[in-house]
């Protein structure tokens, strides 16, 4: 992570974290017990947003003829992690401060704050320069546990640190069951666990998170072409879902920093308030994974093309996105504070989450202007009709302006108000979240009106 001073706006981040809690997007895990570091719970609106992100990804990746989905177990045979290189290489260098006892990732000291209250605001890199740290030790990030009742070495299993291996070991199962031929891909969404030395920046670096990974199996020689194809597709996915293009950039891994399995690797980075950070990695993994599993399992992982009679180990192009990190990027990107006119013609500050309609947790809110004259009955009827199709919210408390603000704050694209004119001509006011423009439409046309706009 690079720190970009110009965008280092902790105040904005604090506001987003506080809004996320107040409105039910994200809560600290086990909060009543003081929280559990690096773990978060998704509340009623958060779970909708996260689900919408994962659904959009699933649709983009698997509603095509050359990609199949799977859902592999989190616990896998321990040999998987030896073959993958995780037992030997999935480590971060760790240092301890001899003075304040805080623990740091040795390669991230520029971003870390010193752990001692006596040196508030000081960077850990300074403490290192003063010789306060121990020598760096390699720390394996995999969570270890035991299968069965006996806690001995033979029973060790790991919580998967990535979903990718569940795909690799199932390559031939999926290929033969679905009668696919390379080039084809396997997609999976699921939890992953990493015992990160320092968790930080809200959902950015957590110990439990979700990944959305797609591994694309190709004939060696066609890997560069597919690598370029998937880079373009994956960046465009974020843009199509409304993410600000200027806040996305590519970071190419330098040849000497490439992971042991990779021939080429790019990260899609988002400009968070605390700096640029990776949200997805696109990697050319070569035939490393399948060859290693062949070596460690003793089972052939080669593909046989019965038309050309060729037998080969496919190369893999990996697209690996964090669902939780994407959640945070979409949330941060949607967050705006802007001036809005009040009913009295004055200006006030409104907080608005400008989510793409496909991601918005609530798609429409329905209000009766007042709680009499038959307005609540009409509004309730509209709500009931919509509820079977989309997530709607009914709100009859407070001034309409206040109700708009509450919906703006959670990113609801449309608010429908039943008022006295409704009683005469069967129309309601539709108010657009972003433009704040209002128009009248007839009640009957509401489902079609919303369907057309929400599908954009
Ligand atoms: P980093 O360098 O930030 O630790 P990484 O390069 O180890 O990330 P990958 O192994 O490529 O990450 O994982 C793919 C994706 O999984 C990342 O782009 C990110 O979106 C997500 N991810 C990885 N680690 C975490 C984590 N600790 N918390 C949340 N998301 C994560």
Question: Order of strands across the biggest sheet?
Answer: 3-9-10-16-13-12-11
Q: How large a portion of the residues is in β-strands, by DSSP E?
A: 25-35%
Biggest sheet, open or closed, and with what strands and sense?
7 strands, mixed
Decide which structural class fits the backbone. Answer: alpha+beta
Rg over CA atoms, rounded to whole Å, is: 25 Å
Give the N-terminus to C-terminus distance in angstroms: 33 Å
Q: What helical percentage do the residues reach?
A: 25-40%
Question: What ligand molecules are bound, each kind once?
Answer: adenosine-5'-triphosphate
Number of strands: 23
| Tally of individual helices | 14
Task: Describe it.
The structure is a single chain. By secondary structure, the protein is an alpha+beta fold. It is built from 14 helices and 23 strands. Strand 17 and strand 18 form a beta hairpin. Helix 2 crosses helix 10. It starts with 9 loop residues before the first helix and ends with a helix. Adenosine-5'-triphosphate binds next to strand 10, strand 13, strand 16 and helix 10.
Annotation keywords:
456 residues; alpha+beta; seven-stranded mixed sheet; five-stranded mixed sheet; 14 helices; 23 strands; binds adenosine-5'-triphosphate
Summarize this entry quickly:
By secondary structure, this protein is an alpha+beta fold. It has helices at 10-22, 44-62, 78-83, 86-89, 124-129, 164-168, 171-178, 223-240, 288-297, 323-334, 375-387, 400-410, 420-425, 446-454; strands at 26-28, 40-42, 67-69, 91-96, 103-105, 137-140, 144-146, 156-158, 184-193, 208-218, 248-252, 264-272, 275-284, 303-305, 310-312, 315-322, 335-341, 347-353, 364-368, 392-394, 414-418, 427-432, 438-442. The strands form seven sheets. A seven-stranded mixed beta sheet has the order 3-9-10-16-13-12-11, sandwiched between helices.
């Amino acid at each position: 992570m690079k720190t970009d001073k110009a965008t280092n706006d902790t105040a904005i981040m604090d506001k987003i974290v506080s809004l996320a809690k107040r409105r039910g997007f994200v809560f600290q895990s086990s909060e009543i017990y003081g929280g559990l570091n690096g773990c978060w719970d998704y509340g009623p609106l958060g779970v909708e947003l996260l689900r919408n992100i994962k659904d959009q990804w699933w649709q983009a990746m698997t509603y095509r003829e050359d990609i199949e989905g799977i859902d592999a177990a989190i616990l896998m045979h321990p040999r998987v992690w030896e073959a993958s290189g995780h037992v030997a290489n999935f480590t971060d260098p760790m240092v301890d401060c001899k003075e304040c006892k805080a623990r740091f990732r040795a390669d991230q000291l520029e971003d870390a704050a010193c752990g001692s209250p006596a040196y508030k605001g000081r960077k850990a890199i300074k403490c290192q320069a003063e010789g306060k740290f121990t020598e760096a030790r390699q720390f394996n990030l995999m969570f270890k546990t035991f299968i069965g009742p006996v806690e001995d070495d033979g029973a060790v299993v790991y919580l998967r640190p990535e979903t990718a291996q569940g795909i690799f070991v199932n390559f031939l199962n999926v290929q033969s069951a679905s009668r696919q031929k390379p080039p084809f891909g396997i997609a999976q969404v699921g939890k992953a666990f990493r015992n990160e030395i320092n968790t930080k920046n809200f959902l950015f670096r957590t110990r439990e998170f979700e990944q959305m990974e797609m591994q694309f199996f190709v004939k060696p020689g066609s890997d560069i072409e597919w690598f370029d194809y998937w880079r373009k597709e994956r960046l465009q996915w974020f843009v199509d879902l409304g993410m600000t293009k200027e806040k996305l950039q590519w970071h190419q891994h330098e040849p000497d920093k490439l992971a042991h399995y990779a021939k080429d690797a790019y990260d899609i980075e988002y400009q968070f308030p605390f700096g640029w950070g990776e949200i997805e990695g696109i990697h050319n993994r070569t035939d490393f994974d399948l060859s290693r599993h062949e070596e460690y399992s003793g089972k052939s992982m080669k593909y046989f093309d019965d038309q050309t009679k060729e037998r080969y180990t496919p190369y893999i192009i990996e697209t690996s996105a964090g669902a939780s990190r994407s959640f945070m990027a979409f949330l941060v990107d949607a967050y705006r504070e802007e001036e809005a006119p009040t009913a009295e013609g004055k200006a006030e500050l409104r907080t608005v989450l400008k989510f793409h309609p496909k991601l918005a947790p609530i798609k429409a809110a329905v209000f009766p202007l007042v709680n009499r004259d038959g307005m609540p009955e009409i509004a309730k009827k509209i709500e009931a009709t919509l509820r079977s199709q989309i997530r709607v919210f009914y709100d009859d408390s407070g001034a309409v302006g206040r109700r708009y603000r509450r919906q703006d704050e959670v990113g609801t694209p449309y608010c429908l108000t039943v008022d006295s004119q409704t009683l005469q001509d069967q129309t309601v006011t539709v108010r657009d979240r972003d433009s704040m423009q209002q128009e009248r439409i007839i009640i009957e046309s509401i489902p079609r009106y919303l369907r057309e706009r929400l599908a954009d």
